[in-house]
Specification:
- Keywords: 2Fe-2S, Iron, Iron-sulfur, Metal-binding.
- The relative contact order is 0.30.
- The radius of gyration is 13 Å and the shape is globular.
- A five-stranded mixed β-sheet has the order 2-1-5-3-4.
- It is α+β, with helices and mostly antiparallel strands.
- The protein is 14% helix and 25% strand.
- The chain has two helices and five strands.
- FE2/S2 (inorganic) cluster binds next to loops.
Amino acid sequence: MDDMISITVVDRDGSEQQIDVPTDINLSLMELLKASSYDILATCGGMALCATCHVQILAAADSLRSPSDQELDMLDTLPDADDDSRLACQLRLTNDNDGLRLKIKGALQ
Ligand code: FES
């Protein structure tokens, strides 16, 4: 189907799941992870202010738009952030993101 992509999520314990995602409803990756029952606090509600939606992009990172200064500033505050870190709330999923693979890293408190 045109407006459906498949992404792979690796949880904190290493368990892995492929999820089919509709792209015609403008979901952020954070919203998708919460809707899929992953443990993501997202205390700021998606404003790039809490960093509890921290994910590490393992594949297809170049399908994502570049991070904003605000996202980069927030990632800078995380001791375990790396070059492939992103804030899931800042990533709107589009048809370009088919094959995205990521690991959940956000803090649980
Ligand atoms: S939900 Fe708070 S930074 Fe993403």
